[in-house]
């Protein structure tokens, strides 16, 4: 008889509710494939309100963003978490300020996406996300390190996608019109020789997926959740005494 797997405690530093909920739900649902029905690792979530994060992000105050993330990190450390994830692409711009002061190690969402893109053999990917994210180096740095090219949305596309994210997706509003706009942008990226698209906002996968996208998707939210599961689940192969 094989003993149950050992699991580490996952800490989620959340930002927006819908993206964090999708990440949490993915962890709990997909863990059952390894651990058995109704079983998943221990998970703790802490978030400061989205408004506090946006107050800093809108003026490029990444020290302020980092302070909020570290506040959550310390609270999750006290709650017993073994490592941390953040299901929000935009605030990863502060990660370089966070990790040196963090009480716990982190998984990086863009690194997980880049690793998956390389594993699938993609050569050039389109980026989608908030205007703060797509103009940053969060994804370009990781993609370039993996030998993968990328295409950013143009200025008008960035503004429109940003509006859809903050006016609709973070409030769980999903419309056909907005999906059609994403499809239009992704189709343009396809014509620029992209072979996949990064869903680089944790809410975008609630609207866009492989079934309705002109390109294969790299779902940052679920890829981060799955990476957390791989780290958290430590198989115990020893058989119990007879």
Describe the protein in words.
This protein is an alpha/beta fold. The protein folds into two domains: 6-108 and 225-234, Rossmann fold, CATH 3.40.50; 109-220, Rossmann fold. The chain has eleven helices and nine strands. Helix 1 (17-30) crosses helix 11. The longest helix is centred in the N-terminal third of the chain and has 17 residues, at 62-78. It starts with 5 loop residues before the first strand and ends in an 8-residue tail after the last strand. 41% of the residues are buried. Mean pLDDT is 93; it is low at 237-242.
Helix/strand structural class = alpha/beta
Tally of strands: 9
Order of the strands making up the biggest sheet: 6-5-7-8
As a percent range, the share of helical residues equals 40-55%
Set out the fold topology:
Blueprint: E1 6-7, E2 10-14, H1 17-30, H2 32-35, E3 43-47, H3 50-57, H4 62-78, E4 83-85, H5 95-98, H6 109-120, E5 124-128, H7 131-134, H8 138-145, E6 149-151, H9 155-167, H10 176-191, E7 196-199, E8 217-219, H11 220-232, E9 233-234
Parallel strand pairs: 2-3, 2-4, 5-6, 5-7, 7-8
Antiparallel strand pairs: 1-9
Helix pairs in contact: 1-11, 3-4, 6-8, 6-11
């Amino acid at each position: 008889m094989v003993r149950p797997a050992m699991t580490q405690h996952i800490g989620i530093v959340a930002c927006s509710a819908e993206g964090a909920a999708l990440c949490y739900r993915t962890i709990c649902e997909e863990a059952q494939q390894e651990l058995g029905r109704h079983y998943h690792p221990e998970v703790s979530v802490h978030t400061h309100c989205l408004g506090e994060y946006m107050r800093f992000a809108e003026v490029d105050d990444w020290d302020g963003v980092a302070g909020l993330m570290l506040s959550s990190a310390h609270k999750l450390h006290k709650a017993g978490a073994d490592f941390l994830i953040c299901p929000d692409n935009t605030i990863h711009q502060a990660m370089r300020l966070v990790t040196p002061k963090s009480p716990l190690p982190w998984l990086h969402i863009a690194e997980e996406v880049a690793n998956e893109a390389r594993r699938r053999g993609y050569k050039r990917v389109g980026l989608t996300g908030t205007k703060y994210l797509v103009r940053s180096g969060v994804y370009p740095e990781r993609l370039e390190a993996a030998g993968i090219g990328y295409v950013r949305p143009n200025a008008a596309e960035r503004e429109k996608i940003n509006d859809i994210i903050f006016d609709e997706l973070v409030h769980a509003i999903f419309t056909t019109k907005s999906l059609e706009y994403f499809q239009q942008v992704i189709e343009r990226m396809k014509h620029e020789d992209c072979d996949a698209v990064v869903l680089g906002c944790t809410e975008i996968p609630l609207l866009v997926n492989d079934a309705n996208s002109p390109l294969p998707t790299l779902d940052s939210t679920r890829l981060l959740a799955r990476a957390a599961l791989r780290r958290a689940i430590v198989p115990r192969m020893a058989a119990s005494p007879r």
